[in-house]
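Morning. Coffee machine broken again, so started the prediction first thing and wrote up yesterday's gels while waiting. Chain of 85 residues, entered below exactly as on the submission form.
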Amino acid sequence: MDNPRNLMKTLSEMWRESLWESHSNQVEAAAKMREKIQDRRSLDQYDPARLQRRVESCWSNGASLELDDPQLQRGGRPRPGDRWR
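Came back before lunch.
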């Protein structure tokens, strides 16, 4: 698997590219981002829709992305009391 720090940078860049390709249409950018996540083998363990939403939220709010969050995994469940529910 990729280094987590590099993976977070890659996800941020994927979101930025998706926004640019969709002329800042966030609905279209979200769909493009999910496709990019599905196409990248190193992201197979993650649910594309959940990861896309989290990246978008972190990117727009300046928050840090926690790739070890079980909710981001395919079929993952949120941690008790998690703010991302």
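The chain has a mean pLDDT of 88. Going to sketch it on the whiteboard this afternoon.
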